[in-house]
Amino acid sequence: MILADWIALFIRWFHVIAGIAWIGASFYFVWLDNNLREPPKWKKDKGIKGDLWAVHGGGFYEVAKYSYGPEEIPKTLHWFKWEAYATWLSGMLLLFWIYYAGAEAYLIDQSVNELSKIDAIMYGLLFIFGGLGIYELACRSKLSQSPIVFAIFLVLFLCFSSWLASQLYGGRGAYIHVGALIGTIMAGNVFFNIIPSQRLMVKAVTEKAPIDPAWGAGAKLRSVHNNYLPLPIIFIMISNHYPMTYQHPQSWLVLVAIAAVSAWIRHFFNLRHIGVFKPSILVSGAAGMLAIAIWVSWPQLQQSTPKTEAVSIPTVTQAELTTVIDKHCVSCHAKAPTDDIFKAAPMGVMLDTWQDIEKWAGKIHHRTVFTRDMPFLNKTGMTDEEREVVANWYHHYQKTAE
After folding, report:
1. Fewer Cβ within 10 Å of end Cβ, the chain: N or C?
2. Tens-place pLDDT, residues 49-63
3. CA dihedral 345, 371, 118, 233 (to 10 degrees)
4. How far apart are CA 125 and CA 340, in angstroms?
5. What residues does each domain of the chain span?
6. How sure is the predictor about 189, in pLDDT bands with cuts at 50, 70 and 90?
7. What does pTM read for this prediction?
């Protein structure tokens, strides 16, 4: 297990680094394309349709974009593809290494859907690659001829995908599969369209043949999608640290709402690149995020807080709470865990002693009563009555601490 954890660490580390390189390059080229300006006549005569000057790293850079192409294809021509492929390959490896190898702990939630390990894996792969197939068919259909119509289709497609994933898995497993689907679509855009179109363009320029406008139009559509999708996928990557999102009763709707608002905020920067400044987008985006936070948190906050001080809250003894902790928490959160998956205490939280329990009192209450994501996928079957024991104990513990 120690070796497996180190392997998972290095895969995740590489995946994040590759993702930064891919998204960084994608954002840069969108910015670059939107900031090209009309060049002087002598550059136009050379076939340059837009140029840009920049200063960075102690030097000046001149960038030019050709209408057709250079007179001769240079020996060294940089292609931006391996960032995308490396990100996707490492992401899929991480999916198999953690979520599929440990499906019983990370993926299957029997309260949502009673799945075997094999079923969970097969449904996941069908979800990812079936979704990619639907997207590809849509891109190659008449839908792609209208950017607005296709955008509506894409939003509805991702909404349905998020809902479907929530019917197959618990919140965390659903989120990671929606993220895998989006990442696969983005990498597929590079592999199936953008790079092939660029190869055709290079071949045409080399042979002094005409360039088919359809090559650029198709690649442009995919590039636009890849420009708006990174923000939702980055949220999914970090969402496992914030169970109030994936543990919400309508977790799929939380994901859709955050994805929509983040894409809207990204639109502000895309417009800013072409000189259109609309601060109302940022204001409405911030208001949207605030509304989501209130919507997600308010019902849970109400449930975990006593309605009035007049309500009599039972006193919970140390022995009663320890019994609940020992039954549902210590198998993982201990110096020597006995759980079949977690062989080291997650996040370093150990609850072997009463001093440990008091040290982590706030976290215990938050994760078992507020977000209710612990025990993990409720694999030990913690009941509502036992969660109430934790809530009652914490209420009196807070009073004593004050």
Report:
1. C
2. 999 999 998 999 999
3. -100
4. 25
5. 2-34+79-240, 35-71, 318-401
6. very high
7. 0.82
